[in-house]
Amino acid sequence: MTHIPGIVITGASGRMGQMLIKTVTDSDQARLVGVVERAGHDWIGQDVGTAMGGPALGVTVTDDPLEAFAQAQAVIDFTAPEATLEFAALAAQARCVHVIGTTGMTDEQIAALEPAARHAVIVRAGNMSLGVNLLVQLTKKVAAALDEDFDIEVIEGHHHHKVDAPSGTALMLGEAAAEGRGVNLADVSDRGRDGITGARQRGNIGFHAIRGGDIVGEHDVLFAAPGERIVLRHLATDRAIFARGALKAALWGQGKAPGQYDMVDVLGL
Ligand code: NAD
Predict the structure, then answer these.
(1) How far apart are CA 254 and CA 117, in angstroms?
(2) What is the C-alpha separation between 55 and 52, in angstroms, rounded?
(3) Distance of alpha carbon 257 from its chain centroid, rounded?
(4) 8 Å CB contact between 174 and 166
(5) Cα–Cα distance list, 190 to 3, 60, 61, 215 (Å)
(6) What residues does ligand 1 touch, defined as CB less than 6 Å away?
(7) Which of 1, 232, 260, 266 is deepest in the core (most CB within 10 A)?
(8) Rounded distance, CA 256 to CA 265, Å?
(9) Which residues are 76's β-sheet partners?
């Protein structure tokens, strides 16, 4: 019996799914023991390495998540909100660490993770990269140091396939800015202005989403005051940063008490 944790990747054929499969198979700290795709997908029943256009990896793509999770110590899940909710219940049943990278979940969907977190470790973050999580901490500090003379705007850019806006990362940054200022984001959030909106309201936190081409993920937090501006910026150029963070979270979660955690816990920031 090996002590190297077995990992299942859900959403195997997705942009992040394929990157995660590569990251886990390249790692000597984890084993790929299962890959899941939605029922009816072309890849079901195929070896995942072959399906990805490379050498066989000896792991067959399945549409039966529970069967896959039963073989594993962790599930890394970058799929879609409804799928992630289903996987949370099944991962808890199998006592697997569930690493959730899926974004666009509503408050109700996030609250619905709670029963699963009573039985298993869930690590969820809208962004799994070290750089962005550091940027979140910096945003909180800068927002706490400045008064409302500084207007805060979060500007993000992603590839044209992205389905949710603002990005999960933009929301993390907005939450951090609000926390630094000691306000509730819901009370000051100003999303996507259009038309005769009136002058900007003092204290609001604005969000703007750019969608185009193959942008992996770009985030600016702008603090603009009369006479000066501060811009905190993170540019992701390779999805591997999210996959490495997710694998780190899956390994970190082994042996931890059930509950909900985020990357700030994992990275000890
Ligand atoms: P994608 O559309 O390329 O991939 C999603 C995959 O999930 C697809 O292969 C789809 O078939 C699969 N899927 C959907 N429902 C499923 C189900 N019920 N069972 C099994 N598989 C299912 O998208 P992507 O670019 O890989 O992004 C996926 C998610 O990850 C998005 O929510 C995105 O915003 C998020 N994301 C998060 C981070 C982070 O660091 N947290 C980074 C990048 C992307």
Answers:
(1) 14
(2) 8
(3) 21
(4) yes
(5) 48, 46, 42, 24
(6) 10-11, 13-17, 36-38, 41, 78-80, 83, 101-104, 125-128, 168, 242
(7) 266
(8) 11
(9) 9, 99
Q: What residue type is assigned to position 169 of the chain?
A: T
- pLDDT range class, residue 2, cuts 50, 70, 90: low
Q: How many CB atoms lie within 10 A of CB 234?
A: 22
Report which ligand 1 atom has the smallest distance to the Cα of 125.
41
- Give the pLDDT confidence of 58-111 residue by residue, as tens digits: 999 999 999 999 999 999 999 999 999 999 999 999 999 999 999 999 999 999
Interacting residues of 191 by C-beta distance below 8 A, sequence separation 6+: 166, 206, 207
Task: Indicate the pLDDT class of residue 269, thresholds 50, 70 and 90.
Answer: confident
Whether this model's pTM surpasses 0.85: yes
